[in-house]
Amino acid sequence: MVIPLTINYLDSYKYGIWVTVSTIIAWVHYFDFGLANGFRNKFAEAKATENITLCRKYVSTTYAIMMILMVVVFGIFYVANLFLNWCDILNLPAVYEHEIKEMFVILTGVLCIQMIADVLTKLFAGDQRPAYNGLITVVSQVLSLAMILFLVHYTQGSLIMLAAYFSSIPTITLVIATFFFFKTKHYKPYRPSIKYIDFKLSKNIIGMGVKFFLLQISIIAILQLMNLVLTRNCGADSVTLYNVAYKYFSILLLVMGLIVNPLWSAFTDAFTKKDIAWMRGTLKKCDQMNILVVLVGIVAYFVAPTFYKLWIGDTLQIPDALSLWVMIFAVAQTIGFVYMTLINGIGRVKIQTILFCVFAVMAFPVMSLSTRNFGVIGIVFLPTTVYLAQTLFLRIQLKKLVNGNEYGIWAE
Question: Deepest in the core among 113, 162, 351, 403, taking most CB within 10 A?
């Protein structure tokens, strides 16, 4: 409900601007230098050895580093915003320049705070308690829906109002959840404390995190550039069309994420304990789930026109060709995500990092060329290719791992 309400609140063109600017600011997520995922793995390893003191040191140190890092990141983004001309960059009318600049500062500040609070979700993941993350997400979405309903009924369409009130809900929810959970019996032993900050451990966290950072940066160049390229080459309305279609088909990724995300830390635990039999069985189950993903994706494509009609009414008309290509992209992304989750659990990310880096170098020129020649559907050609390649290489790597014949780059 949030998407059609937001489109109605802003209009299709402004919604395209909102999505594009939000996508650019979402790059902040990747400026933690992989710290959050490095913490997740290190916490899971310490928990597997039942070293509670080390767990608490990892928690405290990660919060400390993240706070320092986000202050620096906000400063950089704030200064950059003073000198950038967003309307020139995004090929938009100059009348939106002031509004975009204000929205940029608000969203950046909110997201930096959220990045610090988001350490809690990585703690839940490392502790193999994904239900808590699910609870926080549900509460956040319900409150977000209430906020957009309030804005629709009591204010006029404004990008700044949307940034200030709507985007702050997930951050506020996370901050409140952080204070709540660290007072509970289970998480009180891990509660962050100044006296448990040990910057000597930062080498362990960041050492693991750098691997994820290189991977994340390369993913930025591919996925986060999509809305920017669409806005420049096809107009802000095309961003809305693509994002509505993607939101529908990405339900596949959302559902599989709920199922597979707990396997990240479970794989870390099994790898630490050398439980190869469990890892082999888990890989087989993931293969079976991926077959189901393909079948569900096909069904979703044929159901799409009816779903769009019920979801957004006659506000937008999504072309069948766009739905088809976005479905293929979403299926490839979901399957690649499943295998990536397992590999990330053991920290052997060199192959996929090289793969994404190679495609990242080509991302902007290739996506620009494909959108000029094929329109909106051209935006998914390169991302689909990279996820299909990821699926192939990571499946081979996992098979070698569980069969005990990994060597060379397959073991890195």
Answer: 162
If we measure between CA atoms, which residue out of 202, 190, 170 comes closest to residue 64? 202
For residue 157, the tally of other CB atoms under 10 A from its CB is 16
Rounded Cα gap, residues 249 and 302, in angstroms: 12
pTM (2 d.p.)? 0.70
Burial call 235-265: b when 16+ CB within 10 Å, e when fewer = bbbbbbbbbbbbebbbebbeebbeebbbbbb
In angstroms, the CA 76 to CA 58 distance is 27
Helices 320-346 and 381-403 pack at an angle, to 10 degrees, of: 30
Show the beta-strand stretches assigned E in 133-240. none
The whole-angstrom separation of Cα 84 and Cα 81 is 5
| CA-to-CA separations, 138 to 32, 131, 142, 232, 352, in angstroms, rounded | 25, 10, 6, 34, 31
Of 324 and 20, the structure prediction assigns the larger pLDDT to 324
Tokens 């928990």: give the residue: 47
Mapped onto helix, strand or coil, the DSSP state of residue 404 is coil
- The reported pLDDT for the residue numbered 338 is 92
